[in-house]
Amino acid sequence: MSQRADASQCGGVVVEFESDDIRDARANKARSIPGSALIYLKGPKFLIYVSGALSMWGDRMWHFAISVFLIELYGRNLLLTAVFGLVVAGSVLLLGALIGDWVDRNPRNKVAHASLFIQNISVTVCSIVLMLVFSYKQRIEQIWDGWLTVVCYTVVIVLADVANLASTALTIAIQRDWIVVITGYNRGHLAGMNATMRRIDQVTNILAPLAVGQVMTLASNVVGCGFILGWNLVSLIVEFFFLSRVYRIVPALSVKPPAVEEDQVYLQRVERRISQGEGNVAQPQPLTEGNCNTSLHLKEITNLPLCFRRFRWLVSTCKDGWRAYYRQPVFLAGMGLAFLYTTVLGFDCITTGYAYTQGISGSLLSLLMGVSAITGLMGTVMFTRLRKSYGLVNTGIISSCLHLGCLLLCVCSVFAPGSPMDLSLLMPYITSNSSTELGGMASQRQKHTYPLRGGSNQPLLPDRSSIHWTNNTVLFDNVPSDTAPESYISIILLFLGVITARIGLWSFDLTVTQLLQENICESERGVVNGVQSSMNYLMDLLHFIMVISAPQPQHFGILVIISVLFITTGHTMYFLYAHKAKRKRRLDT
């Protein structure tokens, strides 16, 4: 029987979700038609997949390469890389709401084309600058007493940051908005496209850095820059053509809530706030001194210089964007996802650097990273099946429980044999006698820690002079073979928990992503997802602050426990959201 569910009106556009049975029957009928494969290859879904794969491949190559380039430029020092990471995180944190608002206020094709053009051109120009710096580094250092080098570093970081902001806008536009419209607001097809895009992201996350890394290793950094430059120019043309075709063959993409001028939006906000401040009176008021003051205040605003009006509008947009995020029915689910970013339990440079201190070789780390990619793909498959069987909200609950259950192995690794955790290192101000005694205890525990260049108290990330970079993983050369930890139980439990937890992690991530897509009005879809990106970057910054505060391998157990607490808090927020959603559903029925 044909039925329609959850019809809602958002921003003047009626959003209707058809049942999965109707869509599946229609899809099966299409497959039986001869030439359906050719139709699919020319269809919007395939074009979006190819365009997304090209974009993700370029992003992964660039994010990997720029970190290596900055380290090489600054004499194998991490300063430029740290500055770049701070600038990128800070810019998205501050501008996320503005980026989302820009996505909402402009036609879909203009947003996609502008974001694509700015991103690829920024990377192209940045690659050219890097090629010049690598080729003429000694000459550049002699100009302006070395200040030209500083200018080049600044230009590279700024261009790379602009490219990241444009990439954020393109991701919001395509993966949070276009996909919803292309699937016809059908939950089953939406889940399938989300899962497929995530699988593409998982594969490119492994293969793209390996590809550009091989080019840089076998040739040079200059050739690596040229390879990225050529890729971005070709990708720009192909993605522009594919996105334009998708926009033409899906008429619904051209339908969007009408945009309102910036000044008009700001004046409406000011007028609404003033009226609320004077009292929520529903009936019209006679002309009084208060009303005159309100009109005078609005007139003063319109008489301000254009630059001041723009600045006030930007501040007001940011504030309203965060308010819109807070009042969403899926606010707790989004916050829960953001809390999952405050963790050291992932395949980034922190965890792999710690694994090196525990005697794990680079080849084994590469193998473990490949296994983690497979488990991530398993999570996307599990998401689609659980959603079809138990519903979207219940899928999030199951994924959360699976994620937390696997992370208990990481907690056990902190106290298992072979763990280097030593709480005495967190107390630097002690008496000399106590220091001697504690030093003896630390030396006994240190036998579980893999030695780093002769030091017993090295940071998680040692000097990069003998490091191969692959993806976000660091692989070290010259690993001593005559020393091994007393027990591998701790590190085995750690990576067993991290790898298996990715099944629940990616299923939960896809659950929250689809909840945001389904429950946010079309007129606010961009700004809310922009604020969500800001929250993700904010929580990611916290995990780096954690590592800076406790940088030694002996502190890693504390970081693991803190990470699990943050993740538990995030899933608890989702459980609260699920409880409210189910209660509301019962009341509605």
The gist of it:
By secondary structure, the protein is mainly alpha-helical. It is about 75% helix and about 5% strand. It contains 20 helices and four strands.
Describe this structure in words.
The structure is a single chain. By secondary structure, the protein is mainly alpha-helical. It has 20 helices and four strands. α5 runs antiparallel to α7 and α15 runs antiparallel to α16. The longest helix has 36 residues.
Strand order in space, largest sheet: 1-2
How much β-strand is present in the residues? Answer: under 5%
The stretches of 5 or more residues where confidence is low (pLDDT under 50) are 1-9, 11-16, 265-270, 272-298, 429-483
Alpha-beta classification:
mainly alpha
Q: How would a crystallographer describe the biggest sheet?
A: 2 strands, antiparallel
Average of the residue pLDDT scores: 78
Shape: globular
Helix amount, in percent?
Answer: over 70%
How many helices? The count is 20
Distance between the termini: 20 Å
List SSEs in N-to-C order. EEHHHHHHHHHHHHHHHHHEEHHH
- Supply Rg: 26 Å
Could you tell me the number of beta strands? 4
